[in-house]
Specification:
The complex is a heterodimer of chains A (about 400) and B (about 80).
Chain A lengths: L8 E5 L10 H7 L7 E7 L2 E6 L8 H19 L9 E5 L11 H6 L3 E5 L2 E4 L1 H20 L3 E2 L5 E3 H6 L2 H4 L6 E2 L6 H10 L2 E2 L2 E2 L11 E3 L4 H8 L2 E2 L5 E10 L14 E11 L1 H22 L3 E5 L6 H13 L3 E8 L4 E10 L3 H5 L2 E2 L7 E8 H12 L8 H6 L1
Parallel strand pairs in A: 7-14, 13-19
Antiparallel strand pairs in A: 1-3, 2-3, 4-16, 5-6, 8-12, 9-12, 10-11, 14-15, 15-20, 16-17, 17-18, 18-20
Helix pairs in contact in A: 2-10, 4-12
Chain B lengths: L6 H15 L20 H15 L5 H6 L3 H10 L4
Helix pairs in contact in B: 1-2, 1-4
Classes of the chains: A alpha+beta (about 400), B mainly alpha (about 80).
Chain lengths: ~400, ~80
């Protein structure tokens, strides 16, 4: 969560059950969604401290008790009967001597390389842009090694599609909704005359806006599956690559370039039989390993799970872990001695094939995999390990940008 | 296919599955496999595992989650572990 100055009211809570170590981070991030007043949460196995901002909403005894009750609900739902994930490590190159140990954000800001527009929304300067282009070229090369067809996908995605892939149930907390003014002259005139921002929020009544049919897309590969929906897959296989803007709202978890609301992903997408997609996912990982090693990146590739929302977390995370559906590329951030997911190799089984009615020549649903790389995170992890002095960078990176 | 001697246990498993994934028991055939019915998805699978845990003491862990993906597999697993 954010490292903002701690002000306001503190609430201390003793969980009804002990929180296992492996769930502390997941529970801390989910507590952000308990109440709008929460500005920070500290979690240990037997103790939770919530920091509340009374300026957002008054904190009286009733509100405190409500927040405590909701916190217990979150902890109990996620930790009661939790299944310990089995972590499988496929690549481990964390133990490297690195030339830089500081948080690069202050230096990036001082140099005009990052400029924050709002929580989780940043513009980037020339050096970071060139680094991002450099990384993207490597991922494009990965796609080319599979003869992946280039695709361009929109930023918007229909709500109906997200419903078909059960996104509302699995990740409701991270959705970003899109609307527009209703096609009504009075409404539009009134808006143009009175619209203003009050503490950053538009003052217009909600009735001015059309019903929501569209969202901002949370992932690139979804668009490819949508394009293939409700028909047999021609030739029984497809490999595509695309880069696109993705949006995942993360409340107070939005932090520097580590966790953006609006970010960019390059994906290489595999659709076909189970063997076809799994073989290609593994080949993609093996083809990327020499690049990450040559880059001198301190990282590991290990099994992981998606950040499912509270109600589904326990079951879905255990399922993903048991079937090894997701492997994350986690780069070291030396300044906080922790790792950050900069990419992932994902297998969705026949989930999209079944729910979107995409079939193989024998009528069975297709299986899907994707290799996904977060471009801003990739650049951020690199400058966290190598700093902004290009003399410290690996020569081939310096020469390529 | 299960032998005649397994039939009562197969029937029990079919009933347990039907309840877990909320489908009529007639839809749960003796050779049903994960994914055959849309209701036997990841969430349905975990619900089945938790009910197997409650009824037969099956430990829910990475191995059982990945292995018990069909009625024949569940039957085989229960038979292997019946004396433990």
């Amino acid at each position: 969560m954010n490292n903002k100055p701690l002000t306001g009211v503190q609430v201390e809570i003793q969980p009804e059950i002990l929180i296992p170590d492996y769930l502390i981070g997941e529970i801390r991030s989910k507590l952000a969604y308990v109440d709008e007043s929460i500005t920070q949460a500290e979690v240990s196995p037997d103790h939770i401290v919530l920091h509340l901002d009374p300026a957002r909403q008054e904190i009286n005894a009733g509100r405190k008790s409500e927040i405590i009750h909701k916190t217990h609900q979150v902890v109990n739902s996620m930790a009661r009967g939790a299944f310990k994930p089995k972590i499988q490590v496929l690549e481990d190159h964390l133990d490297l001597q690195l030339p830089y140990q500081d948080d690069p954000m202050p230096e990036l800001a001082a140099l005009g390389e990052v400029s924050q527009e709002a929580e989780g929304i940043f513009t980037l300067g020339p050096l970071l842009c060139r680094l991002i282009d450099f990384f993207d070229r490597q991922f494009v090369d990965l796609g080319s090694s599979f003869d992946a067809e280039p695709r361009r996908f929109p930023t918007l995605i229909p709500a109906q599609f997200m419903e078909r892939v059960h996104y509302f149930r699995a990740f409701p907390h991270s959705l970003s909704f899109v609307t527009h003014l209703r096609e009504d002259l009075e409404v539009i005139d009134r808006f143009s005359e009175t619209a203003a921002c009050d503490q950053g929020s538009l003052n217009s009544p909600l009735e001015s806006f059309a019903r929501i049919k569209t969202l901002l897309s949370p992932a690139v590969c979804y668009h490819h599956y949508l394009a293939l929906a409700d028909k047999p897959l021609v030739g029984g296989k497809s490999i595509a690559t695309a880069v696109g803007s993705c949006f995942r709202y993360e409340a107070i978890n939005l932090t520097s370039l580590e966790r953006l609301w609006n970010f960019t992903m390059r994906e290489v997408i595999f659709v076909g039989s189970k063997d076809f997609v799994l073989e290609n996912r593994e080949t993609a990982r093996q083809r990327m390993e020499p690049f990450f090693k040559d880059l001198g990146l301190a990282y590991r590739v290990e099994s992981a799970n998606d950040p499912f929302f509270i109600g589904e977390f326990r079951k879905q995370a255990a399922f993903q872990s048991a079937f090894q559906l997701k492997f994350e590329i986690r780069a070291l951030l030396p300044y906080r001695n922790s790792t950050l997911a900069v990419g992932s190799y994902n297998y969705h089984q026949d989930f999209f094939g079944r729910n979107l009615n995409i079939t193989l020549p024998d009528g069975a649903p297709v299986h899907t995999c994707c290799a996904a790389f977060g471009l801003e995170r990739m650049a951020f992890a690199f400058v966290s390990q190598y700093g902004l002095d290009q003399k410290q960078w690996p020569a081939f990176v310096r020469d390529s940008i | 296919m299960p032998s005649q001697i397994d039939q009562p246990l197969v029937g029990e498993i079919q009933a347990l599955l039907a309840e877990a994934i909320q489908v009529p028991v007639e839809m749960v055939t003796a050779d049903l496999t994960f994914g055959d019915l849309p209701q036997w998805d990841s969430l349905g699978h975990m619900e089945i595992l938790m009910r197997l845990e409650e009824k037969y003491g099956v430990e829910v862990n990475a191995e059982t989650i990945a292995r018990l993906v069909s009625i024949p597999e569940i039957l085989q697993f229960l038979k292997e572990n019946e004396h433990e």
